[in-house]
Design goal:
Helix content: 25-40%
Strand order of the largest sheet: 7-6-12-13-14-11-15
Radius of gyration: 22 Å
Distance between the termini: 22 Å
Number of strands: 16
Structural class: alpha/beta
Number of helices: 11
Bound molecules: flavin-adenine dinucleotide, uridine-5'-diphosphate
Length: 375
């Protein structure tokens, strides 16, 4: 006799949304996670009265009304708007690339002046079909922005030269000719007032959760416990790396409590110079307009991934996409296992996209199960 309808491997955002939906429909569900907390990478922990984003800055933003309504059931969001600052040597720039940045770079005041400089720099490059990230960036923003704000940061972040990176990574960075420092264009943006962990806790209300539990320590036993598995860990690990490991990028976080009220005056400051070893410093209280006496900062270092380290970013270049395709074929042959989330789908997804994907999977899966029963 199977004990549960679903075993969800991973108490991150994907697993929590799926489990919530399954529980709502009367399914029995067990969620396991190898970490000692729920929330996966969006986990926040209170230190000195400040919600600390333990796995890097997480800003919720979406254009999807269904997703926005959905998350608002579990959390009240504040009005935080992400406006990062970039430090390049002794210079400071606003991000994303906008009229403030162009004024800081060249002293220009109008969009026409900024466009003239950028277009001149672009035309000097003679790039017709950008083949890699470097060419894509130069063709989009010209030499100055590329050299000061992209090249060093990207090389640190991905651990290889921009010439060896796919161009789509840079398409995430907006370029605009208005004085607008808002990083995102979505109509909805904010941070849950009580932190992300509280939001996940609400999603998981009524669902059984077991922490400190690695699926692979007892794979066969876990499989026998449920009719179906929703697996949100690494897809290559599920298949014992039989075609070789997929590539990921890992991170290292150094968190410090400082006996001062305000360290850097902004939630996110990027260090775009290659010589500075970290990519960014986040000051957590500014995500929530905090006025505490102390402050907590985190330096984020990018590092090579190897087994045992956390796989934060999938490296979606051509070679890895091909390898992932092979694992996807194996996944299709496992009718009782559903692969979801950033690691199960080997795809960089923002939180809103993860929620959308989990809701789609739940809708498809749970309505199918319902129809099966009615037959
Ligand atoms: P995860 O959060 O990784 O959850 C997977 C869970 O599965 C983990 O808890 C893991 O411990 C568990 N697990 C894995 N293998 C096993 C196993 N064998 N046994 C048991 N448990 C297992 N998105 C935004 O929208 N805005 C942002 O500002 C933003 N910033 C980000 C910054 C960084 C540095 C990173 C890395 C990501 C950022 N994201 C952001 C993306 C966001 O983190 C993801 O969309 C989201 O966390 C993905 O949820 P998930 O459930 O798919 O994966
Ligand atoms: N990037 C950059 N300079 C910056 C910030 C980002 O060149 O100051 C590039 C870098 O290649 C990075 C990509 O833009 O990988 C996406 O960055 P973003 O901060 O949007 O994504 P995140 O790292 O938070 O997922």
């Amino acid at each position: 006799m199977k004990k549960y309808d679903y075993l969800v491997v991973g108490a991150g955002l994907f697993g929590a949304v799926f489990a919530h939906e399954a529980h709502k429909q009367g399914k029995t569900c067990l969620v396991i996670d190898k970490r000692d907390h729920i929330g996966g990478n969006i986990y926040t922990k209170e230190i000195e009265g400040i919600q600390v984003h333990c796995y890097g800055a997480h800003i919720f933003h979406t254009s999807n009304e269904r997703v926005w309504e959905y998350v608002n059931q579990f959390a009240q969001f504040n009005h935080f708007v992400n406006s990062p600052v970039a430090v390049y040597k002794d210079e400071l720039y606003n991000l994303p690339f906008n009229m403030n940045t162009f004024h800081q770079l060249w002293g220009v005041q109008t969009p026409a002046q900024a466009k003239a400089i950028i277009n001149k720099q672009i035309s000097q490059m003679h790039i017709v079909n950008p083949k890699n990230l470097e060419e894509q960036a130069l063709a989009l923003v010209g030499k100055d922005v590329y050299e000061k704000l992209i090249e060093g940061y990207t090389r640190k972040q991905w651990g290889r030269p921009c010439k060896e990176l796919p161009s789509f990574i840079i398409k995430r960075l907006p370029l605009r000719y208005t004085f607008d420092n808002n990083y995102f264009k979505d109509p909805h943006q904010g941070i849950p007032k009580k932190g992300y962990t509280h939001m996940i806790k609400k999603m998981l209300e009524g669902v059984q959760v077991v922490l400190h539990t690695d699926f692979f320590d007892n794979k066969e036993e876990w499989i026998a416990q449920a009719d179906k598995i929703v697996y949100t860990g690494m897809i290559d690990e599920y298949f014992d790396y039989c075609y070789g490991p997929l590539e990921y990028r890992s991170l290292r976080f150094e968190t410090e409590v400082l006996d001062m009220e305000n360290y850097q005056g902004n939630a996110v400051v990027n260090y775009t110079d290659y010589e500075v070893p970290y990519t960014r410093i986040i000051e957590h209280k500014h995500f929530d307009f905090g006025t505490q006496k102390k402050t907590v900062i985190t330096r984020e270092y990018s590092q090579k991934w190897e087994k045992g380290k956390e796989p934060y970013y999938p490296v979606n270049d051509a070679a890895n996409s091909e390898l992932f395709g092979k694992y996807e074929e194996l996944a299709l042959k496992e009718p009782n296992v559903l692969f979801g989330g950033r690691l199960g789908m080997y795809r960089y997804m923002d939180m809103d996209k993860v929620i959308e994907a989990a809701l789609d999977m739940a809708e498809c899966e749970l309505s199918y199960e319902g129809t099966k029963k009615d037959r």
